[in-house]
Task: inverse folding
């Protein structure tokens, strides 16, 4: 081997050795295992505005501090309230009549909009303010009055009473087969008359 070639090899080795010891800025990071990651706290569901008689899973507002009380007919069975209900009952020979108590902030659209919504659920045409005034009755309770309508459809019927109390609209509604609702009408009226917002 020539001396010139030997010199070049020694020079390359001399340059390569310091490079092996040089820190090129490589950093080591610790990655947490999946079970070391703290779980996120669940976010509570926010209430969404709902309307009486609408299907869905819209959460109901918290019960009012002045939630009403009533006398329940012995023939009715109490059920779990459900997502939008303050109270729920069934009646009739096979429990085919549904009774609900719901509450919403404010007037939720007004009387005409609410009654027309219930009418649509029965396949009935909407009415105007004049017809609503003619068809709306009054049920006197122990301390106040409820507005009340009877809505007979082709096969199903709805009876509903409602009132605005301290900024909340309270709805008391009965729906079921026409004949079964008619059989429960007197009990429903007595139920409405027993409603009180005081202890």
Result:
């Amino acid at each position: 081997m020539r001396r010139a070639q030997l010199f070049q090899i020694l020079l390359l080795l001399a340059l390569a050795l310091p490079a092996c010891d040089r820190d090129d800025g490589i950093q080591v990071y610790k990655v947490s295992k999946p079970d070391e990651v703290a779980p996120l706290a669940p976010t509570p569901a926010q209430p969404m505005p709902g309307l009486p008689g609408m299907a869905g899973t819209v959460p109901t507002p918290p019960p009012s501090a002045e939630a009403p009380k009533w006398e329940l007919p012995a023939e009715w069975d109490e059920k779990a309230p459900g997502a939008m209900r303050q109270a729920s009952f069934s009646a009739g020979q096979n429990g085919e009549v549904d009774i609900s108590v719901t509450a919403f902030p404010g007037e939720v659209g007004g009387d005409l909009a609410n009654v027309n919504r219930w009418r649509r659920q029965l396949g009935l045409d909407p009415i105007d303010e004049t017809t609503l005034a003619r068809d709306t009755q009054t049920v006197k309770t122990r301390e106040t009055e409820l507005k009340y309508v009877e809505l007979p459809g082709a096969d199903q019927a709805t009876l509903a009473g409602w009132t605005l109390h301290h900024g909340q609209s309270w709805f008391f509604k009965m729906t079921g087969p026409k004949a079964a609702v008619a059989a429960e009408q007197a009990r429903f009226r007595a139920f409405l008359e027993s409603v009180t917002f005081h202890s």
Remarks:
- Strands lie at 77-79, 87-91, 97-105, 137-140, 145-152, 156-165, 168-177.
- The longest strand covers residues 156-165.
- The helical segments are 3-21, 111-121, 129-135, 178-193.
- The longest helix spans residues 3-21.
